[in-house]
Amino acid sequence: MENTEDKPKRRQLLNGDRTIWTMVFILCGISLIEVFSASSRLTFGKSSFLAPIISHTMHLGIGLAGMWLVHLLHYKWYRLFPVLLVPLSILLLGYLSIRSMGSSGAERWINLGFFQLQPSELGKIGVIMSVAYWLSKLKPDDELSQANTFWKILALTGFVDALIVGENLSTAVLLAGVIFVMMILGGIAWRRMLALTGVVVGAGIVAVVILLFVPAQTIRDSKIIPSRATTWQARLQDFSQTRNKPNAYEYAKLVAPEKPQETHANIAIATSNILGKGPGNSDERDYLQEASCDFIYAIIIEELGIVGGVIVMLVYVVLLYRVGRIATKCKEKYPAYLAMGLGMLLGLQAFINMSVAVGLFPVTGQPLPLISKGGTSVLMTSGCIGMLLGISNVLEKEAKGEQALGTEADIPSPVDGNESFDEN
Predict the structure, then answer these.
(1) pTM of the prediction?
(2) Cα separation of 356 and 361, whole Å?
(3) What is each CA distance from 376 to 63, 118, 372, in whole angstroms?
(4) 255-282 burial, b if ≥16 CB within 10 A, otherwise e?
(5) How many whole angstroms separate alpha carbon 21 and alpha carbon 42?
(6) CA-to-CA distance for 319 and 17, rounded, in angstroms?
């Protein structure tokens, strides 16, 4: 009898979807092994080869602690988070934009001494959470509600994206794509979505034409086009030139020196075989730039083989499947939209990172969630998963007739300022 009563108490340490918890621990375990292996390039000329992995372990530990704390809260409390995240990210992104004026390249991080903060990570989470709230209040049959919600979402997303695009185009496109799908699923009228699609597609075609056909020097001399446009141009042109591929000799002599990241990533994958070279036995980690972050999936395949690469991919697939189950079980709109938005963000980010590593996408700066080295990315990803676990925790407790932490909170709405959290 005592064992039966004690068992539920021990299980209270980790609430919510236990499959998601399992996937999180698997990703963290892979991350510790592969980041330690891939960080050899970061230790050249430094006194301690343990410094990168110690830093990464601390970030993972803080992230897991934050994830655990967030998952204990009722999801109604999550509506407070954008109140801090959105203004703070706008201020920091604006600061980066001003600091980058006149420089040859955009800056993505703010050095806090003990930590490098990437404001775009704060901005994209804040926007998704705000949009989830606005969509939950949308009245689909009310034209005024439709118009207000549509333009609020466009204004916030467009403004934050405009600040992000100069320092990280892929993040801006990723955020816009997630918000676009959320608007469709959230009930925004089709005529508005079709009009928005036409504008976006038209602008995209113009941008691609400019990058493909306008000389790089003309782009550099332009005062309107962002300074990083020449980098986007080079990556797009390299990726689009699929005809007349050079032979091995021409590639090694002409292409490889100009494309070191893609070259060494290709070598890492090509020499991996089925089971790989084994953890810690990568050869390309010493030559591949951003091996511990943007191209860590290539190192995973090199060391763990095709089998390891498939396993990592399947972990994200399972994670997305569980998020979809959580969203479909929600009785209220806000947690459902929030789960869908955060799930799409993590899933697309993982897909882009893995696609870049295997040569399916142009090079971007998207990290692999919970695996890549990077303090802000690890912490914000942990926060996202913590909220997903928190939503599933509330659903489980409601199914059992229990109360989740924060259920009785009655605090004003952070977005419109005139509604209670007790409203659906």
Answers:
(1) 0.84
(2) 5
(3) 10, 6, 11
(4) ebeebebbbbbbbbbeebeeebbeeeeb
(5) 30
(6) 10
Q: Which residue has the higher pLDDT, 411 or 330?
A: 330
Contact 79, 421 (CB under 8 A): yes
Alpha helix (H) residue ranges in 214-270: 216-221, 229-240, 248-250, 260-270
Report whether 170 contacts 366 (CB < 8 A). yes
Whether residue 32 contacts residue 60, with contact meaning beta carbons closer than 8 Å, is answered with yes
Task: State in Å, rounded, how far the first CA of the chain is from the last one.
Answer: 41
Of 319 and 218, the structure prediction assigns the larger pLDDT to: 319
Q: Specify the 3-state DSSP secondary structure of 111.
A: strand
The radius of gyration of the chain's CA atoms, rounded to the nearest angstrom, is: 23
* Residue 417, pLDDT score: 45
Distance, CA of 133 to CA of 137 (rounded, Å): 7
**Could you give the CA distance from residue 226 to residue 209 in angstroms, rounded to a whole number?**
16
> What is the separation of C-alpha 267 from the centre of its chain, rounded to a whole number of angstroms?
26
210-to-204, 228, 236, 379 alpha-carbon distances in Å: 10, 14, 11, 37
Question: Which contiguous run of DSSP H or E holds residue 117?
Answer: strand 116-117
Residue type, 254: L
Please say if the pLDDT value at position 235 is more than 80.
no
More reliable by pLDDT, 217 or 345: 345
Is the pLDDT reported for residue 42 higher than 80? no
354-359's contacts with Cβ under 8 Å and 24+ in sequence apart are 354/297, 354/309, 354/312, 354/313, 356/294, 356/295, 357/265, 357/269, 357/295, 357/296, 357/297, 357/298, 357/301, 358/265, 358/269, 358/297, 358/298, 358/301, 359/262, 359/265, 359/266
CA–CA separation, 420 and 398 (whole Å): 20
Q: At what angle do helices 296-329 and 260-270 cross, to 10 degrees?
A: 80
Residue 299 carries which side chain, given as an amino acid letter? I
Per the model's pLDDT, the better-predicted residue between 98 and 229 turns out to be: 98
CA 409 distance to own-chain centroid: 30
Distance CA 309, CA 303 (A): 9
Output the six-digit token pair for 228: 């990083």
Across all residues in the chain, what is the average pLDDT? 82
How many distinct helices (H) and strands (E) make up the chain?
15, 2
